[in-house]
From TrEMBL:
Domain Response regulatory, chain residue ranges per copy: 5-119
GO molecular function: ATP binding; DNA binding
Organism name: Desulfofustis glycolicus DSM 9705
Origin superkingdom: Bacteria
Statement: the UniProt record of this protein carries the keyword Nucleotide-binding: yes
Keyword flag Endoplasmic reticulum: no
Protein name per the record: Two component, sigma54 specific, transcriptional regulator, Fis family
Length: 447
């Protein structure tokens, strides 16, 4: 199995080199930073599975770095190392949530044991699960990595999960990932779109029916709850479920039994419920269009899928993925998009999110007569005015580092192109990158 990526932070070059070598020899992938500020830039560019940091560093010390990391990711474990260890510091660090506090000189075996313990605690097996449980989720953005960390954590329990997000953001894909990361992974994952099934049929579809229970019921039907027994039932667009059926669903969730239409004998079911909606359920509860008791039963854990406009750095990867699928399905050999076409894709507002992006890519590819898709086909497919990415001066200063990271992720570390989008000449742009402790090479050929 693949080993995890570790971010190693120390302002002493000799120690940084020594521990990098030892960790790489142990099979880990190591990225390094020589200050807390540089560490946050590296972290934002590509979140690791574990952070190991020295405590005593200038400006941003180890605890300050830990607190900065926690603002963007609450689940990645952090180990703090210092030559100046003390009981008060250790107590303070562990109370704040630091996974371990180790004092120099460190025994290599102890450090490796702590790393393995931290990775097991964080992900029940660490990064090696990524190839299976999150299959199909195309992303490298920090906001999606944070969401996936939450998915991995909540997957350990049987708590009901409500996935929120705009249409087209990939809520069902996230539900499947949660199912695959759980101990129900080998059991069925059964999706049902509550808005796509007529109200008269939805009860029978969910709970089943007995033979002869209504006109046309010429045979018994077990229903989707029983089909998902010991697995996961995904109730998409739960906000559209009719009120009378909400009452029956609540009863099933409380009693863990279903009663097929036309039958009097309840049947035990063991099903984990994941529901999803793009609607404001709180408002629907206030309008008496959604039961408050059902809302709280479903909303034990909430996961919010970000819109595509908040994860634009994922667009190049998504575009490449969709174009590859198109080529495979249509026996085409389209190479990619012109720089102007890619800029248009990066700058579009994407109200339809990933689903809209896929449609645009497929439409432009289908109409392209060349191996490189031109910008006019993208503009035509979008059918609306694109929105320019903010220049650097327009971005709020405190989000400058995140802004620059996103630019370099979108351009694959191409400084000239990133500078053009930020409306700066290359010389000025390099100075801005240096002020924000960002190295363009971190983003080269990132996948």
């Amino acid at each position: 199995m693949d080993k995890a990526t570790i971010l190693l932070v120390d302002d002493e070059d000799d120690l940084l080199s020594l521990w990098t070598l030892r960790l790489e020899n142990a099979g880990y992938r190591v990225v390094t930073a020589r200050s807390g500020e540089e560490a946050m830039a590296v972290f934002s560019a590509s979140p690791p599975q574990l952070v190991i940091t020295d405590l005593r560093m200038e400006k941003m010390n180890g605890l300050n770095l830990y607190e900065a990391i926690r603002k963007v990711n609450t689940s990645i474990p952090v180990l703090i190392i210092t030559a100046h260890g003390s009981i008060p510091e250790a107590v303070d660090a562990t109370q704040k949530g630091v996974f371990a506090f180790l004092t120099k000189p460190i025994d290599g075996k102890i450090l490796l044991a702590e790393i393995e313990r931290a990775l097991r605690a964080a992900s029940s097996g660490g990064a090696a699960m990524a190839a299976t449980w999150r299959k199909g989720i195309i992303s490298r953005s920090a906001i999606m990595e944070q969401l996936l960390d939450k998915v991995r954590l909540v997957a350990r329990s049987n708590a009901s999960v409500l996935i929120r997000g705009q249409s087209g953001t990939g809520k069902e894909l996230l539900a499947k990932a949660l199912h695959r990361a759980s101990d129900r992974a080998e059991k069925p994952f059964v999706p049902v779109n509550c808005s796509a099934i007529p109200e008269a049929l939805l009860e029978s579809e969910l709970f089943g029916h007995a033979k002869g229970s209504f006109s046309g019921a010429d045979r018994a039907y077990e229903g989707l709850f029983r089909a998902a027994d010991n697995g996961t039932l995904f109730l998409d667009e739960i906000g559209d479920m009719p009120l009378p059926l909400q009452v029956k669903l609540l009863r099933v969730l409380q009693e863990k039994q279903v009663r097929p239409v036309g039958d009097t004998v309840p049947i035990d079911v063991n099903v984990r419920i994941i529901s999803a909606t793009h609607q404001n359920l709180e408002q629907r509860v206030a309008e008496n269009r959604f039961r408050e008791d059902l809302y709280y039963r479903l909303n034990v854990v909430t996961l919010e899928v970000p819109p595509l406009q908040d994860r634009r750095e994922d667009i190049p990867m998504l575009v490449e993925h969709f174009l590859s699928l198109f080529n495979e399905q249509n026996d085409r050999t389209i190479v990619g998009f012109s720089p102007e076409a890619m800029d248009a894709l990066l700058e579009a507002p994407w109200p339809g999110n990933i689903r809209q992006l896929q449609n645009v890519v497929e439409q432009a590819a289908a109409l392209s007569t060349t191996d490189l898709i031109p910008v006019n086909l993208i503009s035509s497919a979008l059918r609306e005015e694109t929105v320019k990415i903010l220049s650097f001066d327009e971005a709020r200063f405190e989000f400058g580092q995140r802004y620059l990271v996103r630019l370099l992720q979108m351009t694959g570390g191409n400084v000239a192109r990133a500078a053009r989008i930020a409306e700066r000449n290359r010389t000025d742009f390099y100075k801005i990158l240096n002020r924000h402790h960002i190295s363009p090479h971190l983003f080269k050929n990132e996948r």
